[in-house]
């Protein structure tokens, strides 16, 4: 039977810092589980990734450290490659975009488009730093967003509100290199006509979804781009770090990283071909329409892998007999947060994979992330949940079932698989149950529902424990040894099945179980057969999943608290939750309002709580007319010590926020909230 040919790529991480747990949940853990599962199926599959080593983030990091970009990429490429290896992420090739082969591939694509007349040369205004004597990429310019007033906006996009704008619309621009105000200077670049391919891209996305069922979050993201309309995108930029544009008139320009980075999948496959001594092997995957190409990414990369990269491949295919295969599916995940907050390199919030693996083994992390993958919504990594997953699920359910079964066999059956005696209903039902699991889990993995597949595997371990308990081998060993032997025979077959099903998820632990069983893996579809023959000798049991003690987790929590306090620059006079709870914030309806004659700022308000009315003096007269505030349900500090303002008693304080123009906005709530309701 011809095996399915599958090409799997995982997003190229930037080599400007260490990978963290969020990266793993987004692309690498689900991709590796899927690939390992396909290998057990016997699929003809290769798994490709590598470091993205060009672009502004690399140069910014290098500038901050006062070193060359090459030093940065060497450091983090090697560090991340080693972290992936220790974690068991089983790439067939993990390349890097600084290699000559990648540069050649990037230039080849640019020249192809250039000669086909696809690229358009356009002039535009971009920020230029006269002191540094260089054009400033987007991330090198910071200013005030013209849309929301965010003061750390980039030259073309605001990360706070998502607004896009022209560089000349940015307020108060500053160069992040010199701190000087940059000037707008004319430059020319080559543009890829993305809009030209919009209709084809829409048809492509719809067709792939109809045939292979794309995730809803991916479809929504694509549709939002299509709705706004695709526009030309520059494929070059003024920078000295990257792939030099291969035409004479482009001196001082490099290929834009968005354009060349995705080509890293192709160049990495070419590198693999050379390593294997078959330079044309890459064509068997990339240039064969029968190849199933799956691209694992995080949601922030959807546009590049569902719109930009496919359009680039379409453009190439239009002018070539050798046609690239487009992604059949792009199962992008949402984001993983860390203890309720986004991972942040600048605030040192989170933990790198390298640091994590210095404290804990890989498999508990792999399992925890897999069981909580952000497949449909953002999820969180919590230290306490990590401990709970390891102790209560891996150790107490899976590990306990394996250990108690093997120990019993060693003690009472000389460490050999007992004979399958007379089968009772409970035994037949358990064997029938495990026979269902390979196809049940396979169906979920094939649909990229990795989290659900992992849940089902653990459910089988739960069923194994229940079967052991219900069969009571500690009793039957005394009353009916043959029956006891049948129970242990069934348990061992279940353990074998579990070891295989769990191999994509916790490969290191699975290998330990196979060693204890003194057995080898089989093909996925055969793993629920009776793979351990009667009389087969087992090795001595060992603890597969040691428990994680409270003090180990508490130490990590302490580090977290220290980091959080430093990151937030907390003042010395911080309050505790007990202090805060002393303040009673309540909903109050404004039933009367008038200006104070001798004050421009103060309004005298009559507010109604649940069973009382009281007078509150509020400094909001410059922002609200009396008739505008009447009827609003505002938030007041209800237990504030009464005070006199301009001779009038005030029994409370109205809460408000000030905008950038000095206007006050009173905090209010819905009209359906009852007066006197406490705000918590």
Can you describe this structure?
By secondary structure, the protein is an alpha+beta fold. It folds into four domains: 5-94 and 258-338, HUPs (Rossmann fold), CATH 3.40.50.620; 112-253, Methionyl-trna Synthetase, domain 2 (Beta Complex), CATH 2.170.220.10; 382-526, Isoleucyl-tRNA Synthetase, Domain 1; 577-679, OB fold (Dihydrolipoamide Acetyltransferase, E2P). It contains 21 helices and 24 strands. Strands 15, 16, 17, 18, 21 and 24 form a six-stranded antiparallel sheet that branches. A hairpin with a 4-residue loop joins strand 4 and strand 5. Helix 5 (198-212) packs across helix 10 (302-318). The model has no long low-confidence stretch (mean pLDDT 92).
List the helices and strands and how they pair.
Elements: E1 5-10, H1 21-41, E2 44-51, H2 56-65, H3 69-87, E3 93-96, H4 100-116, E4 120-129, E5 134-135, E6 141-144, E7 171-175, E8 183-192, H5 198-212, H6 216-228, E9 233-234, E10 236-238, E11 253-255, H7 257-261, H8 264-275, H9 281-286, E12 292-296, H10 302-318, E13 336-338, H11 353-357, H12 362-371, E14 379-381, H13 383-412, H14 425-446, H15 450-471, H16 473-479, H17 481-502, H18 507-517, H19 550-568, H20 577-581, E15 585-595, E16 603-608, E17 613-618, H21 626-629, E18 633-637, E19 643-645, E20 648-650, E21 653-654, E22 656-658, E23 664-666, E24 678-679
Parallel strand pairs: 1-2, 1-12, 2-3, 13-14
Antiparallel strand pairs: 4-5, 4-8, 6-7, 8-9, 10-11, 15-16, 15-18, 15-24, 16-17, 18-21, 19-20, 22-23
Helix pairs in contact: 2-3, 4-8, 5-6, 5-10, 6-10, 12-13, 13-15, 13-17, 14-15, 14-17, 15-17, 16-17, 17-18
């Amino acid at each position: 039977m011809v095996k399915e040919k599958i090409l799997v790529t995982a997003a190229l991480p930037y080599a400007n810092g260490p990978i963290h747990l969020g990266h793993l949940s987004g692309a690498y853990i689900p991709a590796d589980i899927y690939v390992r599962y396909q290998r057990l199926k016997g699929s003809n599959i290769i798994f490709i990734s590598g470091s993205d080593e060009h672009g502004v983030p690399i140069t910014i990091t290098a500038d901050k450290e006062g070193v060359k970009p090459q030093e940065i990429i060497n450091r983090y490429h090697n560090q991340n490659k080693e972290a992936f290896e220790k974690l068991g992420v089983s790439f067939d090739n993990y390349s890097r975009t600084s290699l000559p082969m990648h540069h050649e591939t990037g230039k080849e694509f640019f020249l192809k488009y250039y000669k086909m007349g696809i690229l358009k040369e356009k002039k535009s205004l971009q920020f230029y730093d006269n002191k540094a004597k260089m054009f400033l990429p987007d991330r090198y310019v910071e200013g005030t967003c013209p849309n929301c007033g965010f003061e750390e906006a980039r030259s073309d996009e605001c990360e706070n509100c998502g607004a896009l704008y022209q560089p000349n619309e940015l307020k108060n621009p500053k160069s992040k290199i010199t701190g000087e105000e940059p000037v707008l200077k004319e430059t020319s670049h080559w543009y890829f006509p993305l809009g030209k391919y919009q209709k084809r891209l829409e048809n492509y996305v719809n067709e792939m979804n109809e045939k292979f069922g794309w995730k809803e979050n991916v479809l929504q993201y694509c549709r939002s781009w299509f709705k706004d309309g695709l526009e030309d995108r520059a494929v070059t930029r003024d920078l000295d770090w990257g792939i030099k544009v291969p035409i004479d008139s482009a001196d001082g320009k490099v290929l834009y990283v968005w354009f060349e980075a995705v080509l890293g999948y192709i160049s990495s496959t070419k590198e693999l071909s050379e390593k294997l001594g078959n330079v044309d092997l890459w064509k068997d995957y990339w240039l064969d329409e029968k190849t199933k190409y799956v691209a694992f990414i995080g949601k922030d990369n959807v546009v590049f892998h569902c719109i930009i990269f496919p359009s680039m491949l379409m453009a190439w295919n239009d002018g070539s007999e050798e046609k690239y295969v487009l992604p059949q599916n792009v199962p992008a995940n949402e984001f993983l947060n860390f203890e309720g907050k986004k991972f942040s390199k600048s605030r040192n919030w989170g933990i790198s994979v390298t640091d994590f693996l210095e404290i804990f083994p890989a498999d508990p992390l792999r399992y925890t992330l897999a069981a909580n993958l952000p497949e449909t919504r953002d999820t969180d990594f919590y230290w306490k949940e990590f401990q709970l997953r390891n102790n209560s699920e891996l150790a107490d359910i899976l590990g306990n079932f394996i250990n108690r079964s093997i120990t019993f066999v060693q003690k009472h059956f000389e460490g050999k698989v007992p004979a399958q005696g007379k089968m009772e209903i409970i035994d037949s039902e358990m064997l029938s149950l495990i026979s269902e699991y390979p196809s049940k889990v396979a169906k979920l993995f094939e649909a990229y529902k990795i989290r659900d597949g992992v849940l089902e595997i653990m459910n089988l371990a739960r069923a194994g424990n229940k079967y052991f308990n219900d069969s009571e081998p500690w009793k039957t060993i005394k009353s009916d040894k043959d029956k006891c032997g049948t129970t242990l025979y069934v348990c061992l077959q279940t353990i074998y099945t579990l070891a295989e099903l769990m191999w994509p998820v916790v490969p290191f632990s699975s290998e330990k179980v196979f060693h204890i069983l003194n057995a080898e893996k089989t093909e996925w579809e055969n793993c629920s057969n009776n793979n351990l023959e009667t009389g087969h000798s087992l090795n001595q049991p060992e603890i597969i999943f040691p428990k994680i003690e409270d003090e180990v987790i508490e130490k990590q929590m302490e580090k977290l608290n220290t980091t959080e306090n430093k990151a937030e620059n907390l003042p010395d006079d911080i309050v505790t939750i007990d202090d805060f709870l002393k303040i009673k914030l309540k909903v109050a309806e404004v039933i009367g309002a008038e200006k104070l004659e001798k004050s421009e700022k103060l309004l005298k308000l009559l507010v109604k709580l649940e069973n009382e009315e009281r007078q509150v003096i509020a400094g909001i007269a410059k922002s609200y007319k009396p008739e505008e505030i009447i009827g609003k349900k505002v938030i007041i500090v209800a237990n504030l010590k009464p005070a006199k303002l301009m001779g009038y008693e005030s029994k409370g304080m109205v809460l408000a926020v000030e905008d950038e123009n000095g206007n006050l906005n009173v905090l209010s709530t819905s009209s359906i909230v009852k007066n006197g309701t406490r705000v918590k």
